[in-house]
Amino acid sequence: MAEFAIPDSQPDLSSLLEVLRASEERGVAGLLALELMHEIRNPLEALSNLIFLTNLESDNPDKVRQYMRLAEEQIRTVAEITGYTLGFVRASEDPQSVELVPIAEAALRVHQRAIEKKTCDS
After folding, report:
1. Domain edges within the chain
2. Nearest-angstrom CA–CA distance, 47 and 13
3. Distance between CA atoms of residues 61 and 78, nearest Å
4. How many whole angstroms separate alpha carbon 18 and alpha carbon 116?
5. Nearest 5 degrees, angle CA 28-CA 34-CA 39?
6. Where would you tag: which of 37, 75, 102, 122 has the fewest CB atoms within 10 A of its CB?
7. pTM reported for the whole predicted model
8. What is the DSSP letter of 89?
9. What is the DSSP string of 27-56?
10. pLDDT tens track, the chain, 122 positions
């Protein structure tokens, strides 16, 4: 039967808890960063598509105006995301509610063609 020696100097429990807490904070920060990149990437992709469509329809002023209105919505979405993020990071003591309906409606308008295509393919 093997005997195990217990080291005389064990790490302080409070030091271990501090290391664990710091590690957990880095993990949460990393997850938040991933979520933010995903949330920002969607409107940026929409903007890219709208620019393409605007160039494609450059001789149609009505279409250009329509695409520019949609592009403005996407820019506002990015601005809202960054504003909410900065507010969260600053740990504001005055939390504000977020209106999700306008954001969802804007996303649906921008992605309507893809949604319709997938609906027709089903």
Report:
1. 21-121
2. 51
3. 26
4. 52
5. 125
6. 122
7. 0.52
8. H
9. HHHHHHHHHHHHHHHHHHHHHHHHHHHHHH
10. 555 555 555 567 777 777 777 777 777 667 777 778 888 888 999 999 999 999 999 999 999 999 999 999 999 999 988 887 777 666 555 666 767 777 777 777 777 777 777 778 76
